[in-house]
Structures are given as C-alpha cells and as structure tokens.
Design a protein that fits this description.
- This protein is α+β, with helices and mostly antiparallel strands and about 160 residues long.
- It has a domain at about 45-155.
- Helix content is about 50%, strand content about 15%.
- The protein is built from 3 helices and 5 strands; from the N terminus they run αβαββαββ.
- It has a 5-stranded antiparallel sheet, covered by helices on one side.
- Helix 1 runs antiparallel to helix 2 (about 85-95) and helix 1 packs across helix 3.
- The protein is elongated, with a radius of gyration of 27 Å.
- It starts with 16 loop residues before the first helix and ends with a strand.
Length: about 160
C-alpha cells in the first residue's frame, strides 16, 4: 500500500477582499497610465504644437483679411502677416516638432494654409490625422483640413 501525503491545514486569507481588490485596481491604473505615457501622450504632443501653429496662423490671416478686405499675397506664412503676428507665429513654428515649410496661398479665391513636411511619411500623417480629428471632420481626404501624402492644407473661410 502507498502512503498518502498528509493533508495541509487550510489557513484564512492574509488580506481582505477589499484590500486585494484595491491592490488589483492600483496595478491596473498604473498599467493604464504607463500605456498612456508610452503611446498616447507622445503622439499628442507634436499634434498639439502643430494645432497651435494652424490656430494662430488662421486667426492672424482672417484678421488680415478683415482689415485689408482682401487676402494677403501668396507667401511664406510669417511674411503674409503683420510684424507682431509674424513674430508670435515664428516662435510657434520654431517650437513645432514637425519640420517643414509653412505657406499661405490666397490668390485663387479662398485662402489656405499649406504645410509641406521635410520628411513625409507615416509619422507626419499620423500626427496630422489627429489634428484633423480636432479641427475638422476627422476624414483626412475631405473637409476644410486635408492631409495628403506630401502636404496638409487648411482652407480658410472668411465667414
């Protein structure tokens, strides 16, 4: 006959259910914050900087349109604005993490801000698709904000 191992005695849990649940909740919250800091925040930081440039340029160009009763001439974006607005916009452009050229095109009807990236590709398109969801319809191929493989265009309306 074989000898069966001795049964081990049952001990009560060392922590309460509430404490175990809180521990799991804190671990889950920590993992969620870690995921956000690794994936979401790094994508939104450059998009925020690009959005600031578009917003400041849009406000300045629409103000110029109202003051002059016509769009400024096609030019580099800072050259199309007055000196004070150009200085503020120049600071935002230098702080923008996406390198490229910013232009204003207004000779053919409605004005538009055109951004041409120095390095087109997936990172550029991902960033500007996020900007598109914030300021337009979220469709990069339609609406006032259009994101193409080699440029992004924000159409301005003088309404």
């Amino acid at each position: 006959m074989s000898v069966s191992p001795a049964a081990k005695p049952l001990h009560p849990p060392t922590e309460t259910r509430l404490r175990a649940g809180l521990k799991i909740g804190v671990i889950g919250l920590g993992l969620g914050l870690l995921g956000a800091s690794l994936f979401i925040i790094p994508q939104q930081m450059p998009a925020n900087a690009v959005l600031k440039v578009f917003a400041e340029a849009r406000a300045g160009l629409l103000t110029e349109r109202v003051e002059r009763e016509a769009w400024p001439a096609d030019a580099e974006l800072t050259a199309a604005l007055g000196p004070e607005r150009a200085r503020r916009l120049g600071v935002l452009i230098t702080e923008c993490p996406l390198a490229g050229t910013w232009r204003f095109a207004g000779a053919k009807g409605a004005g538009a801000i055109i951004f041409t990236p120095a390095e087109p590709g997936q990172a550029y398109e991902r960033c500007l698709r996020l900007v598109d969801t914030w300021i337009d319809d979220g469709d990069p191929a339609a609406g006032d904000f259009v994101v193409g493989p080699e440029y992004a265009r924000l159409r301005l309306s003088a309404e």
